[in-house]
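Tutorial handout. Part one gives the primary structure; part two gives the three-dimensional structure as tokens.
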Amino acid sequence: MSELDSLAPQRAPTNSRPLLGMTVLAVEDSRYASEALRLMCLRSGARIRRADCLRSARRHLQVYRPSVVIIDLGLPDGPGAELIEELDRVSPRVGVIIATSGDATAEDAALKAGADGFLLKPIESLGTFQQQILRHLPADRRPNGPYAITDEVISPDPLAYRDDLEHVLNLLDGGHDAPVLAYISQFLSGVAHSVSDGAMVQAATKIAGETGADAVAPMVALIEKRLQTRLAI
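Part two.
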């Protein structure tokens, strides 16, 4: 590797910034979820890099050694559990591996694959985010002494949701076959749930197992309406 993050933090963590000196690699295809993680890292003192698929994550990991890797279990080019298994076997191992999903039942499989912890989407609590990472770090990488557990709720810019909706339309330009629609269904229903867009969750769920442009027409119309009204939901 040509550039590695040191196993020891460059700057010691503090009570107010408990992840100071660490680098987080977020393997996440949603811009909205990625923005939430970016804000949480910023509040916590950590640097963040993003990969939106398994292939991109593997390229990052050939060059950089993050302190923490947060992996979405549903990625466009395969299950995140594959990457978790790979990282769990590598020596030296990444310090902390955290899985994320909007499906609470996926936690057991993620932990069996080698994840240290699990974050259920939507990830909104800064305190929960920090605790999930800190509890798996060696004692010498945690803040000295007691630190406050914040109850701050992180709310990403709604424009990040707009980016995710536009991403779905771009995916549909490539076709309407079953694998594409299956991915869009789980991706969009998860993102829409995070922003409490119930109508979009229903529209995205309905296309699971379907094929063809007619099957997605109601969902596309709803996406276009959201984009035209600047997401006034």
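Part three, for discussion. The chain is about 45% helix and 10% strand. The radius of gyration is 18 Å.
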